[in-house]
Amino acid sequence: MAFRRALKRLLQEIPNQGSRCYSTEARQMVTMIPGDGIGPEISQSVKDIFSAAGAPVDWEDVDVTPVKGPDGNFRLPPKIFDSMDRTKVGLKGPLATPIGKGHQSLNLALRKAFNLYANVRPCKSIEGYKTPYNDVDLVTIRENTEGEYSGIEHVIVDGVVQSIKKITEEASMRVAEYAFAYARDNNRDTVTAVHKANIMKMTDGLFLKCCRHVAEQNKDIKFKEMYLDTVCLNMVQDPTQFDVLVMPNLYGDILSDLCAGLIGGLGVTPSGNIGQDGAIFESVHGTAPDIAGEDKANPTALLLSAVMMLRYMGLSPYAQRIEMACFDVIREGRVLTGDLGGSSKCSEFTEEICRKVRESE
Amino acid sequence: KMTDGLFLKCCRHVAEQNKDIKFKEMYLDTVCLNMVQDPTQFDVLVMPNLYGDILSDLCAGLIGGLGVTPSGNIGQDGAIFESVHGTAPDIAGEDKANPTALLLSAVMMLRYMGLSPYAQRIEMACFDVIREGRVLTGDLGGSSKCSEFTEEICRKVRESE
Question: With an 8 Å Cβ cutoff, are B65 and A237 in contact?
Fold first, then answer.
C-alpha cells in the first residue's frame, strides 16, 4: 500500500509530456474477475481498450465459481484471495446469483478479506444518452461495513423482531476521511454528509460527529449536512446541486442506486470498493443471460469502473484518454450498443473506442 | 432477513386474502433506481417506516415538491391530514402562499369521511385552475395572490354544482 502511494506521488510529480514519458514505468498486475453471462465479453472489451491505450496493466484472470470443500460446502476458490493478496487491485464483472445452499457470498467475502470499507459511485450524465435529468455530476460514498447491514437481528417474541444498526467511530471516521481525500484528489468542491440524526440521534449522530470532525481538518473542502429525505426530495428536482455525498450503509445503498438511475441506470454506472488492503472496481449491473455470448453487451459500466481503477492506481493520463474516448463514442452516437439506442455489436463499439484511444496518443 | 422478512411475510399473507388486487415485491434500491427512470410503472407502495420516510419525499419531489403534495396519517382511532411543507415565514401574512398541499390533503380527508362527491369537485376545480395557468401563486410560476388563487378555485367549484 505504501509502495503504491509512493508510486502515485512520483507519477504525479512527473511533468505531463504525454504517454512517452511513461514508457519505462512499472507494469502493474490486476486481478480480473470476468464474471458470468456477458461478463467475459465486456471484460475482453476492457482488456482490448487498455491494450489500445498502452496502459501498463497486466491481467490475472480468476474464475470465482464456487468449489466444493472437504466439508461438502461450496466455497470460493482460494485463488481469488491469493491473487488479490498479491495484486491488491481487482476488476470484477457481473456474477450470477448462485442457487443452492452453503454458498458464501463473494461480495461479502471479498469485502471482509480486504476490508473494503467505502463504496464509491461517481454519477455523471453521459452526453448522447438522454435521461430526464441533465448535468448530473455527483459522487456517492457509502460506508460499506456496518450500519443497518450489520446482520444483527433477533426475535423478541413471536411476531416481534428487532434489527440492530451498529455505527462505530472507527468506521465513520474512516469513510469520512476517505470522502474528503477523494474530494481533494478529484477537485471536488463540497462534501455533504447524509443522515437522519434528528431521528437516530446516537447512531447517525455519531456518524455526523465524525464527519464534522474530519471537515474541521479539511477546511479547503466545503462541508454540508442534509437529511436523507431532503436529499431525495431535492435530488429528483435538481440533482445538479449535489457534489460528493458521504453516508452510512443503508442510505448509501439507496442513494447510489437512485443516482445511477438519474444518469441512465446500472448499465452505464461505474463503481469502486475501496479498502485498507486493496480495492475492487466493478460493474453493478446483471449478467444479462439473454444476450450473453451474442456480442450485444454494453461494456461501458465495466470500462468506466476500470477508468476509476486506473486513477486509483495513479495512472490518470490513461484513465483520461480512455474515458474521453468512451464518452466521445457515445456522444457521436454512430456506433452504439442496443441498450444505448444503437444497433452496433459490442465488438464494434469496443473497436470504435480503441480507435479513438489510439488517435488520442 | 428477520425484520424486513417479517414485514414481507405479513404483506404476502394479506395479499393472499385480497386476490382482486395485484401484489408485487421489490427491493428498495431497485425501486429508487426505477423510480427516477420511469415512475409511471408504480402504483401503490407499502413499506416500513424509514423506507417510507425516504420514498414519500422522493416521490413528492417527482411531482413538484412538498408545496403541492397531500398527506394523510391514518389511525385506528382517527386520522389527521396535513400539508408537509414548512411555515414559509418570509411570506407569511402577505397573501402569497399556495394552499394546494393543504387543500389536496383536505380532499383526501373528504374521501376518508365518505364525502367523495365534494372531494371530486374540489379536486377537479383545483387541478383545472393550475392547468389553465391564468391564476397561479408565485411558487407555481404565476403572480397571483393566495386569495385570488383561492377565489378562482371557489368560482370553479360553484360552477360545477
Answer: yes
Cell of A184: 481533494
Of B13, B56, B6, B1, which Cα lies nearest the Cα of B31? Answer: B56
Can you name the residues that pair with A28 across neighbouring β-strands? A57
Q: Cβ distance A204 to A100 under 8 Å?
A: no
Contact B32 A257 (CB under 8 A): yes
Q: List phi, psi (to 5°) of A245.
A: -120, 130
| Cα angle A307, A311, A315; round to 5 | 100
* Shortest alpha-carbon distance between residue A259 and chain B (Å): 7
Q: Does the beta-carbon distance from A132 to B36 stay under 8 Å?
A: yes
> ipTM for the complex?
0.89
Which residue does chain B place closest to A264, by CA atoms?
B37
- Report the candidate in A125, A262, A231 with the shortest Cα–Cα distance to residue B39: A262
Block residue for cell numbers 420516510: B53
Please measure the distance between the N-terminal and C-terminal CA atoms of chain B and give it in whole angstroms.
53
Q: Are strands A160-166 and A147-157 parallel, antiparallel or unpaired?
A: antiparallel
* CA atoms within 13 A of residue A87's CA, in its CB half-sphere: 26
Question: For the whole model, what pTM was predicted?
Answer: 0.89
Percent of chain A with pLDDT over 90: 80
Q: What is the pLDDT of residues A187-241, one digit of tens each?
A: 999 999 999 999 999 999 999 999 999 999 999 999 999 999 999 999 999 999 9
The tens digit of pLDDT for each residue in A125-173 reads 999 999 999 999 999 999 999 998 888 899 999 999 999 999 999 999 9
Q: Report the alpha-carbon angle A204-A209-A211, nearest 5.
A: 95
Closest partner residue to B34 (CB to CB) among A154, A237, A261 is: A261
Chain B residue numbers touching A162 (CB-CB < 8 A): 3
Calculated CA dihedral for residues B28, B30, B35, B41, nearest 10 degrees: -110
Alpha-carbon distance A213 to A198, whole Å? 18
| Closest chain A CA to residue B52 | A229
DSSP A42-68: HHHHHHHHHHHHT--EEEEE-----EE
- Grid cell of A313 as nine digits: 492506481
pLDDT at A150 (0 to 100): 80
What lies within 8 Å, CB to CB, of B17 at 6+ separation is none
C-alpha distance from A257 to closest chain B C-alpha (Å): 5
Kindly report, residue by residue over A268-295, the tens digit of the pLDDT. 999 999 998 899 999 999 999 999 999 9
Which chain A residue's Cα is nearest to B64?
Answer: A237
Measured in angstroms, the CA of B57 and the nearest CA of chain A are apart by 5
